[in-house]
Amino acid sequence: MLNIVSLGLISILVGFLGSLTGLGGASILIPILVFFGVPVKEAIASAMVAIIATSSGSASSYVREHITNIRVAMYLEVFTITGAIAGATITTIIQPAYLYFFFAAFLLTTFMRFGNSISKDFAPSEDQDRVSKWLGLRGSYFDESARKVIAYRATNAVLGGAGMLVAGLAAGMLGIGAGAFKVTVQENILKMPPKVSSATSNFIIGMTALAGVSVYLFSGLLNLTLMAPMAVGTTIGAVVGGRVLNKISNRSLRILFFVIVAYLIIQMLYKGVMAI
What we know:
Layout: H1 4-21, H2 26-35, H3 40-64, H4 70-91, H5 96-108, H6 130-135, E1 138-143, E2 148-153, H7 157-174, H8 179-188, H9 194-219, H10 224-244, H11 250-275
Antiparallel strand pairs: 1-2
């Protein structure tokens, strides 16, 4: 059984991995909590608090290192917050068994970015649409592993916003932060570098989770016993991950992302089948 100490230690590792991959940590925590017998709705609600902690811990490091694109994040948050409130409301009324399959199906969409991307280097977009240019969605950062400054221009702002609305809906509904999908949208639609996508995703995740938690607070699903060690552990892990991210190659980050998401899909499908 989980106790405060073991849950705290597990949360440190989860926060570290969530910070590196942009998943936000809760995607890994929820299957662990469910495995140990925590009701899925309660796990989802409580894990969203851990998302806020993870985002706060890692986002501060990424902002300080100028990896996070604040302008892009603020634009995309408009869509994710709207979706999160709607998604959390749906979770409070839906049958729990369906949540396992929704969780797995949503994560399955993140494999879209792995067709040819594990070994492929980032190539900046040559064109930028009018909306993206008007919003000033561009930036640069110093990549320590490549030892050079990477400049980029985000594009497809309208389509990216629509994708983030879906991500916010899933985040609020499944309590996972939807970092996997947010990173995918930023890389494949907005054409942002992998490290910037991961860092910006961590920044956005916190605000998205806060919107969802506000709904769960009034529904009575929040478990303070779970929330406290999870929040502390994921914050510690996220801070460490934030300091390590820029030292790891893009290929290593993508492989790590792939392995974690594959595990989560298998775990939740199994739980879904067993719950029927």
